[in-house]
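Quick check before the chapter quiz. The format below is the same one you will see on the exam, so make sure you can read both the input and the output lines.
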Amino acid sequence: MIELYKFGPAFGLRETGPFVLKTLAYMKLAGIPFTQIVDGDPRKAPKKKMPYIVDDGEAIGDSTFIIKHLKAKFGDPLAEGLSAYQLAKGQAIKVMLEERTYWAGMIYPRWVKTDHHQLIADTFFGEIPSFMRMFIFRKIAKGVANAATGHGIGHHSDAEIFELGLDDIKTVETILGTQNFILGDKPAEVDATVYAFLHGMSAEVFPTPIQAHIRGSEPLMTYLARMDALVFGDA
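Here is the expected output.
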């Protein structure tokens, strides 16, 4: 059976990492059997980041390439009945969330701003003695801040960064409209990504204008509850 290596829940979230939840949600929606293994050390992963899977002894990293592998092996049941246009729309939404919204709604407020550094350090690095924990954490956070600058998002002000993220979330909200799922009446691959990122950005312990908009949106919160029920069966 396929093994999914992941961080595990924290901060009141189903999964700490949105890319982990994206992969988990895809496998649940596609009906692919797997086991879950909590391992918080991405240094063991084939691409030094979570999640990764082990399938027949082969380790595969990066959520996008994991899903490509799964579709090649099991087919693409979530694409059945969808047009090329719908699939292209889903791809565009996925890339927006993963390549920009993620930085504005999760990386920047958690790792670049210092508001939640103590919480994150205590959660992720609790095994490190307290007298040196923040020293090590700040070095890691500085690397993330440099990555945000390299990405481009780090050059903007707080207000500008959150404005960009809100633009993206409102775009998703508009596309969803009154539908049950992003592309219509049944879940598609894009829903695994949308669900994972909306869920991650809605965490109560990390308040941002983006979080406030998600939590104040009946369509988005109803969508999250609907996806919770499909993926975890206990919402």
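If your answer matched, good. DSSP finds nine helices and four strands in the chain.
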